[in-house]
Amino acid sequence: MSNTVNLLKLCVGTETVEDLASWQISRRNHWPDQKPRHITRMWPKREAELLNGGSLYWVVKGVILARQRITALEEQRGEDGILRCALVLDPEIFRTEPAPRRAFQGWRYLTPEDAPRDLPKTRHTEEALPPELARALADIGLR
């Protein structure tokens, strides 16, 4: 069993990885250390594994396209008084090989073996494959 695990999350409200990056930059002054956070209702039970090099993999329009390292978990009380978990993220966004994923609610654990590889930094400006093509390639075993 690996001592590192990742999280998989739908990136709701964005069309591209650039949208995600722009949103996080626009919110920078709202966070005490200016590091992006993603707030979730549930506290991950596998916290130690997440904080041992784990990342949050973002699903954009049905395809995993990017990841950010998780650097900490913090308690966050909402305006409604409910305690939630803030995933503190490294600001650097790594593009990944496109990997189709069906819609789901909340987040899911993602093992390092099942996580898509990072794209070379020189390919950051390339557009992702259309979701239909990425799904078709994944269905035949080509990511």
Concise summary:
16% of the residues lie in helices and 34% in strands.
List the helices and strands and how they pair.
Layout: E1 6-10, H1 17-26, E2 37-40, H2 47-50, E3 55-60, E4 63-77, E5 83-89, E6 94-100, E7 107-110, H3 131-139
Parallel strand pairs: 1-3
Antiparallel strand pairs: 1-7, 2-5, 3-4, 4-5, 4-6
The portion of residues assigned to helices is 10-25%
Residue windows where pLDDT falls under 50 for at least 5 positions: none
- Order of secondary-structure elements: EHEHEEEEEH
Instruction: Note the beta-strand portion.
Output: 25-35%
Based on DSSP secondary structure assignment, what is the total number of beta strands?
7
Q: What is the number of independent domains?
A: 1
Coarse structural class:
alpha+beta
Q: Please state the average pLDDT score.
A: 88
Cα-atom Rg, whole angstroms? 15 Å
Shape: globular
Number of helices: 3
Biggest sheet layout: 7 strands, mixed
